[in-house]
Amino acid sequence: MIHGLLATLMTATGSWACGGPDDPACTDGDRPEALDPSESAKRAELIGLSNCSWTTAMMAERVLDEGVPYTYVGHLIESHNELASRVAAPYTVGPNGRIHVVANEVLDLLDRQGSLQARLELQGKVLEVDGVRYLVVTTFSKGAS
Hints:
globular
């Protein structure tokens, strides 16, 4: 039992210490190419109290299917994360912060890496639904200029 507990702690520590895609300490959940952008984030901090992970995942799928390519370079802006659609969108981007960033597995990875406050290049798709613009991030680069 002690060995199992130690193995669990070492695995968790290893995933936090992931230094990049070639780092052997990285798990599949730490590798952007292993993530599914249509899946909702797992961290409660990103979903929020009044939002629904199922609704978030459905919107992410819709944006990926119907949206247009979009690239944003800059910082994420914290939002109130309280859209009427119950889609979790804890950050906004773009002119006047009018594009809501859907809380998906890619955003979850950025959060676990502590990169949400950094300057980023985000690539994905954007779609307007009922007057709200949603961005689903599919890939990112840190420290974009």
